[in-house]
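Ticket #4471: structure output looks truncated?

Reporter: J.K.
Steps to reproduce: submitted the chain below (113 residues) through the standard prediction queue, then opened the result file.
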Amino acid sequence: MFTPYGINIIQVMKNDEIQYGVIRNTEELGRLARAHRKSREIGLLRIAGLANLGKRFLSEFERGKETCEIGKVLKALNALGLEVVIQPRNITLKGKTSLSLSAKGTATVGKKQ
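Returned output as attached by the reporter:
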């Protein structure tokens, strides 16, 4: 696919390493999903068919629409071969103390070196 300026978008995505990791908002999630899809040279229509979702929905999701249904987003990510991992966030208290929460709900407080 070429932009109006003649730049091959897919090639740009292949050359730049995709940064997987912490997602803080819908725009970042959509951007990551789009980069992943394009790096594998998969079109929106193909993902729409695999996930039984509309092309318009996928386009809006990739553009970071905040009101996209979570069930549909998970279907799209699954069709792309991506998964969501939920884990506690490390919290820093007063500079050198960290707080970690376990899956069981227990908190661990430790001093940072």
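Triage note (M.O.): checked the attachment and the full token line is present. The first strand starts at residue 91 and ends at 93.
Status: closed, working as intended.
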